[in-house]
Amino acid sequence: MAAAIALARDGASVVVFDQFDAPRPVGAGLMLQETGLAVLGALGLRETIENLGAPIRRLLGVSISSGRTVLDVRYAALRDGLTGLGVQRTALFNVLFDAAKANGVDITPNVRVTEADSTEGTLTDDRGRRHGPFDLVVDALGARSVLSQQPKQDLAYGALWTTVPAPTGAPFQQDALQQRYLAARQMAGVMPSGRTQPEAKAMATYFWSLRTDAYDAFRTAPLAAWKQEAVALWPETAPVLDHIKTHDDLAFARYRHRTHRPHTDGRIAHTGDSWHATSPQLGQGANMALLDAYALALAMRETSNVATGLSRYAQLRSGHIHLFQTMSWLFTPIYQSDSTLLPAVRDWAIAPISRLPLVRKLQAAMVSGALGAPLAPLGLNG
């Protein structure tokens, strides 16, 4: 949607093919960082989404095994006034969807793309219909895009997600994403995620780490058994879990890690998870996708030649993507894996080091997406 808005505003005739009968969001809450918010600002949408979201000033994680605070990221360590923004995916989708329609984007539902001809710029759907030709095809199909390379398997761990009324009272902080860990095998988190409408109740996103190969067992076991396990990890979440009545109240997200190459192919540009899928540990997925969208529009604005524009697009984004893909690959096992050594190192070595002022600043730069200065090449300020 962001790419469609930016390209349409530059005068392109844009068609968005959506596989659902009616376009709708998928997934629970997410965090917008300054990088993603800067892009939304350039699209004239930042104030609207900030009025719906919940400012997050701190990421706080405690290890149950050691009793230590092993994650304590404060945005202010990088810059006074800097925050993240917890939002419901529905809120972000609605803001972008309304802007796309207002900018004349043709949104065509019930089209599941299965193939693309990178030379001709045509698409084929699952009913054998051909669409196009188009000057430019933007692959925004996500981590399981049929137009990009597929990893051999999902990451070992995924997560259960749901949206619940925002909890109040100790230990919950209204401006913090909080987590609890048992080694790296169990993780629960609560994140303020704002509202879908200005007058609606404040909500939060609850998530629970789960091995992908354990999901079927979770579905067949009594929900009460899982709740007992979740409360044992974090007793204060018991009232939060009361809002979960059935297994269907919890969506399960599977994650993948891979970087598609080449980044562009003929008339095709890959964006977001279609280009660079990863785990959500650094909270950068939506923000990286927004950066891709804006970079693509900027690159195409600079030239009338599609090949030249796509080359520039890859140049604008490749370095930042490589940096965060590498960091995600390094840090994910520390918080989500079957390892016993890595969480022990995290608790007894990394945690004390992370209290150093320089390390605090580095952590804030990493979480906010500012590491690698991705906004400067796009002419955006953060």
Mean model confidence by pLDDT:
94
The Rg value, from CA coordinates, equals: 21 Å
Structural class: alpha+beta
- Secondary structure: helix percent: 25-40%
- Alpha carbon gap, first and last residue: 22 Å
| Approximate strand percentage | 15-25%
Strand order of the largest sheet: 5-4-13-14-15-12-16
Number of helices: 11
Biggest sheet descriptor: 7 strands, mixed
Shape from CA axes? globular
Could you list the spans in which at least 5 consecutive residues all have pLDDT below 50? none
Number of strands: 20
Can you put this structure into words, describing what you see?
The chain is an alpha+beta fold and 382 residues long. It has eleven helices and 20 strands. The strands form six sheets. The chain has a seven-stranded mixed β-sheet. Strand 9 and strand 10 form a beta hairpin. The chain is globular and about 60 Å long.
Short overview:
With 382 residues, the chain is α+β, with helices and mostly antiparallel strands. It contains 11 helices and 20 strands. Helix 1 runs parallel beside helix 8, helix 2 runs parallel beside helix 8 and helix 8 runs antiparallel to helix 9.
Task: Name the descriptors.
seven-stranded mixed sheet, 11 helices, alpha+beta, globular, 382 residues, three-stranded antiparallel sheet
